[in-house]
Amino acid sequence: MRYSEGADLDTSSVRDIRGGGGFGGGFGGGRGLAVGGGGLGLVGVLVVVLLQVLGGGSGGGPGISTFDGMGSGQTADNGELEQNCRTGADANDSVECAVVADIESIQDFWSATLGDRYSPTDTVFFTGSVQTSCGGASSGSGPFYCPADQLVYIDLSFFDQLRQQFGAQGGLFVDAYVIAHEYGHHVQNLLGTNRQVTPGETGPTSGTVRLELQADCYAGTWANHAETVPDESGQPLIAEISDDDIDRALDAASRIGDDFIQQNLGNGRVDQDAFTHGSSEQRQRWFRTGYESGDVRACDTFGTDDLG
To answer: Is 148 helix (H, G, I), strand (E, B) or coil?
Structure first.
């Protein structure tokens, strides 16, 4: 994956709270249900824990601040990010700058696709732990989207975890797939799709799985158009996505399916009734569906009996 060398990067859709650290204190109650279960799969029981803990009633939990979706003591400072991430050349050299470019491209795509129905949102870069309007989360939770504050959260060390713990090949496009998946959840929230899902529901055909597979498909749809999505200057931020990039994304998808995680990182036994993200094969299939069609209408996982 290559970014256009001379493209200007816009860091305004990132809230960088890494300098001040995350909000201390573990998990707390919150509003809404954080979706994505880490976006690309957590190890074993952590999926269920995140869904149970970050779900909850309509009121905010103890110690939760719903202002801008960040808790007390959390302040964003983009100064260093703005200095480091100025052009596409920086994105080619730096993971954090590449993610800045990914966010801009993904949101430009959805703005063009949905028009007034799309409202841009920010991604929060954190380290260690973070407090959200859905509750507290740690780096081990992986990237996720909180509907209550409409923000994406990620500790960038997750990309290392994806390679080291899950055995994925990784690469800049795999990182972009992670981000595009989370923004797929934002789209679902804006369109009301997530209201079709019963919180805590699991199983191979559950609404939870359908939501995750659709986010994979949405990520693939963006990837289909990424080389032509213009930024404010009229030029695309992304210069090239190669066949190898797509193969790496499919490799990542194969390693974050519920069956792979249960068998290789869990107790070794596959329990379909506990599925929350879909099997490896399903995740590959729906990313490929979005990528090959380039059409968001092909991503209706709620309107089919054949999830793969």
So the answer is: coil
